[in-house]
Automatic annotation (TrEMBL):
Keyword set includes Cell membrane: yes
Keywords: Cell inner membrane, Cell membrane, Membrane, Sugar transport, Transmembrane, Transmembrane helix, Transport
Cellular location(s): Cell membrane
Pfam families associated with the record: BPD_transp_2
UniProt source species: Nocardioides mangrovicus
CC terms in the record's Gene Ontology section: plasma membrane
Keyword Transport listed: yes
The protein, known as: Xylose transport system permease protein XylH
UniProt GO molecular function: transmembrane transporter activity
Amino acid sequence: MSKTNVEAGTLPQDDRPSEFSLDVEERSIADGVRSWVINLRSGNPGALPSVLGLVVLGLIFMQVSSQFLTKYNLGNIPGQGAYIAVTALGLVFVLLLGEIDLSAATAGGTCAVVAAVAVSAGNLHTGLPTFMYWCLLGGMLICIGLAAWLRTYTAAVVIAVGLVLVVTNLTQHLILALIAAVCIGTAIGVFNGYLVAKVGIPSFVVTLALFLAWQGVEQFGLKGQPVNTTRYDLWHNLTYGNLSVLWSWIFIVVVVGGYAAYTLWASLSAKRAGLARDGVDLVLARAGIIALVAVVVGLFASVNRNTNIYRVIEGVPVPAVIAIVLMIGCTIALTKTTWGRHLYATGGNIEAARRAGIDVVRMKVNAFTLCSAFGALGGIMLASSQSSASLDLGAGNALLFSVAAAVIGGTSLFGGRGKPRDAIIGALVITIIPNGLGLRASIGPQWQQVITGIVLLLAAAIDAVSRKRAARR
């Protein structure tokens, strides 16, 4: 065919160079399964190892004790592991950047201690040692300035709210005291992020130092006397409370219905726009699986789990509701916002993210801020679980279990890969181990440490091997 014909535009339509076209593929159920298999073979197992771990542990503990699968025991698991799940949710943000926060649990414990002192003494100024009270006010003021300077304006507003609550002594009211505790946790996160992202101190060193320091601060704040939290129904029910049967079903319908409606709307919107999408069959299949699991949970929660005839325990446990709601919020933030995409990009390749115009310093500060805020929530949950704000709240295994939960669930220690659901699944694994072992008196507590360590090592090994396998492809 001559050059003249080409220039004149008389080429047949099929012989002309094709123009760029959008990907309009509609993924069916078979395509979804095929994509999952490809990800698995390419070194991205997702939550599969942790789910298989749950199944294996469940089968083992069924043999260890006939009490493991009883309604009463299974109903206790959310309360036993809620503080781990909540703290691990915050750690996911930091781990996505390839960083670590070893101070999350003790920082959260310190925040819970401040809230406990505030409501028990009725006045933080008199309840805390004088120098600690003024250090708290000064530290929050400094962190407001740091947050504004680093352009984390939301954090600055949250800390300012906490400062107002403390100064006006509104923290004598329990709900406001717990809000102030989260605000203080936010201030701690801004400080951590500043030291890591701006000063340049390795996160391991910064948070290890503060892990030790916050334990001392807790003892200063409590003046050597723990505060009983069972006196406050709201605080106690964060771990031991249950929704009514009616509200349990409402919660299940809202969560499952919301997921189904959103994913179906997203599929239909993408179809109208001519974009790649999950087919309606795939969307409905996923929603159906989730609905089936939710119905089973709902039926289980609707019956009395207590063997004591004088007290009825039924309904979805409150700690499970808290963990699920927080997981949904974190998932939306990470997958449906520009901020979330920037966080993943920064964790995947920090230099490429910087060259693309992403404010890497701000992303790191945001991640540490969220981590400590969630740590404060975790500390509040831990105080509820232990029925007191103790002198070593958040020390010991609390942090280690939370990090282990995120990693075991599937969040990579190398950054760039992980989901909030990982924290929930990993927390279940971590919680089931002592729960199952504790049902057999002849098995010593030392086995808990050994088995937890082995499970964590296996999770880290799977992460490392999968990354090498992905790099070779």
